[in-house]
TrEMBL record:
Lipid/polyisoprenoid-binding YceI-like domain location: 34-202
Signal peptide residues on this chain, from the entry's feature table: 1-32
Identification of the protein by name: Protein yceI
Organism: Psychrobacter aquaticus CMS 56
Superkingdom of the organism of origin: Bacteria
């Protein structure tokens, strides 16, 4: 049944019923689909300048969480759990150093979390392109706001999973000292860390 006949019927029975149906239509139109994070295609990679010589890189893997997305209503949310023990730089000795109390201190803080607070979309009302995601990053026992810039975001029907998958790539630069990780900054090592986040999530 279309929306116009529903409203016509509702008006004939008075305002209370009309209000109920209008509310139901609003909820249905803004219902976001929920997706489960795919750990195989979701990761956080970092790059940090090494005393103005080279660039140290590494990543965190096996992330979990959920994503919700409604392109018509231009709404979304993302919740990520980042296991810091999954850190991999390609060098075991370097991994051990970064996991120590001098840096991530994973024995005390084994997990990091990201929770989005606001999604931004293209200003054109007919364009549902995701442009930015604001959120809160909890790391090393501290929580600070970060803004992720979307370099791409899309949904497709996975031929392997046989279900809808949404995901994209995001970038941001953070000041590690805001999370209490300040080792070697007094010796000239930058506090700025570039992050690249790959996210994919499959429909529940």
């Amino acid at each position: 049944m279309s929306q116009i006949p529903l409203l016509t019927i509702a008006r004939s029975y008075g305002k209370p019923l009309a209000g109920m149906i209008l509310g139901a239509l609003s909820i249905a139109s803004s219902h976001a689909t929920t997706y489960n994070i795919d750990p195989a295609h979701t990761n956080v990679r970092f790059a940090i300048d090494h005393f103005n010589t080279s660039t140290n890189t590494g990543g965190f893997y096996n992330l979990t969480g959920q994503l919700t997305y409604d392109p018509k209503a231009k709404t979304g949310s993302i919740s990520l759990v980042i296991p810091l023990n999954s850190l991999n730089t390609g060098n075991k000795a370097f991994d051990i150093m970064l996991k120590s109390a001098d840096f991530f201190d994973i024995e005390k803080f084994p997990l990091a979390h990201f929770e989005s607070t606001k999604w931004h979309f293209a200003p054109n009302k007919d364009n549902s392109e995701v442009t930015k995601v604001e959120g809160l990053l909890t790391l090393h026992g501290k929580t600070n706001p970060v803004t992720l810039t979307a370099t791409k975001f899309n949904c497709y029907l996975s031929p392997i999973l046989k279900k809808s998958v949404c995901g994209g790539d995001f970038t941001t630069t953070i000041d590690r000292t805001k999370w209490g990780i300040s080792k070697y900054t007094l010796l000239g090592m930058t506090e700025k860390v570039d992050l690249t986040i790959q996210i994919e999530a499959a429909k529940q």
